[in-house]
Amino acid sequence: MALSYADALRHAMLDEITADIDSGAGAGTLRIYDGSVPADADTALSGNTLLAQLTMSDPSAGSASGGDWTASSITSDSSADATGTASFFRILDSDTNVVMQGTVGTSGADLNLNSVSITSGDTVAVTSFVITEGNA
Questions:
Q1: Is the link from the previous residue into 59 a cis peptide, with omega within 30 of 0?
Q2: Rounded to an integer, what distance in angstroms lies between the CA atom of residue 72 and that of residue 57?
Q3: Core-most of 10, 85, 89, 120, by most CB within 10 Å?
Q4: 42-51: long-range contacts at Cβ-Cβ below 8 A with a sequence spacing of 24 or more?
Q5: Over the stretch 101-117, which tens digit does the pLDDT of each residue have?
Q6: Cβ pair 37, 87 in contact under 8 A
Q7: How far is the C-alpha of 89 from the C-alpha of 6, rounded, in Å?
Q8: Strand runs (DSSP E) across the chain, as ranges?
């Protein structure tokens, strides 16, 4: 049997994501990288190229509801930093502390893009970002 959490706890866990992203003086950022995915969000980057950087809203999300954390609007990167194949993302607070990391793909990833091929100078957009803390 899988773990099951009370709604208040599920929402508190999700709301902590917002608190961490918003802990700096300004808006957090969503950075998209190429290369090998680090072991976890605490592992330093190693030869990865920053492909795009998008600015989160401040606050980054409203209160969690229905087991979902839904990001507020995310500003597109109107000119991608480099050309490469997106493999993972990191969300950082405004002091550049890593809050989370996840995979990038076109389906079944933590962050799904229309294409993982990013070209320097192109616009990179994320139209929605939802994290679900579900009960099995």
A1: yes
A2: 6
A3: 89
A4: 42/98, 49/81, 49/82, 49/84, 50/81, 50/82, 51/80, 51/81, 51/82, 51/83, 51/84, 51/86, 51/118, 51/124
A5: 999 999 999 999 999 99
A6: yes
A7: 29
A8: 29-34, 50-56, 68-70, 74-75, 84-92, 98-105, 111-112, 117-118, 130-132
Q: What tokens does 17 get? A: 């994501």
Question: What residues contact 52, with CB distance under 8 A and at least 6 apart?
Answer: 31, 32, 77, 80, 81, 86, 118, 124
**Number of CB atoms found within 10 A of residue 37's CB:** 15
Tokens 């992203």 locate to 21
Query: Radius of gyration (Cα) for the chain, nearest Å?
Result: 15
Mean pLDDT of the 32-52 span? 97
Under a CB-based contact definition with an 8 Å cutoff, are residues 9 and 67 in contact? no
pTM: 0.94
What is each CA distance from 69 to 22, 38, 57, 103, in whole angstroms? 14, 24, 14, 18
